[in-house]
């Protein structure tokens, strides 16, 4: 019975997955900040900011999509 419970998708596994995602996001943000800090031209800075905004928008959308339960209903 305990094995079956372990094999079931449990909240702690999802939480661990979220922690991995958060870690990746933090690393990505740090890299972006590093790039922004060392990008001298306004053009590059604008492009990076646009990339960041679209990336954050996509992540927010996916997070909302996941929270709504659509991903887990299949």
Commentary on this structure:
With 74 residues, this protein is mostly helical. The protein has one domain. The chain is built from three helices and no strands. The longest helix has 28 residues, at 11-38. It is elongated, with a radius of gyration of 18 Å. The mean pLDDT is 71. The chain crosses the membrane at residues 21-38.
Briefly, what is this?
The protein has 74 residues and is mainly alpha-helical. The protein is built from 3 helices and no strands.
The tally of structural domains comes to 1
Number of helices: 3
Rounded to the nearest angstrom, the distance between the terminal CA atoms is 25 Å
Radius of gyration: 18 Å
Along the chain, the helix and strand elements come as: HHH
Strand percent estimate: under 5%
The gross shape turns out to be elongated
Would you report the number of β strands? Answer: 0
Alpha-beta content class: mainly alpha
Residue windows where pLDDT falls under 50 for at least 5 positions:
none
> Main beta sheet: strand number and arrangement?
none
Mean pLDDT: 71
């Amino acid at each position: 019975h305990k094995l079956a419970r372990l094999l079931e998708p449990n909240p702690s596994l999802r939480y661990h997955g979220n922690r991995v995602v958060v870690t990746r996001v933090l690393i990505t943000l740090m890299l972006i900040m590093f790039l922004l800090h060392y990008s001298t031209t306004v053009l590059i800075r604008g492009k990076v900011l646009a990339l960041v905004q679209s990336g954050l928008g996509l992540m927010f959308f996916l997070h909302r999509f996941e929270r709504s339960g659509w991903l887990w209903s299949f």
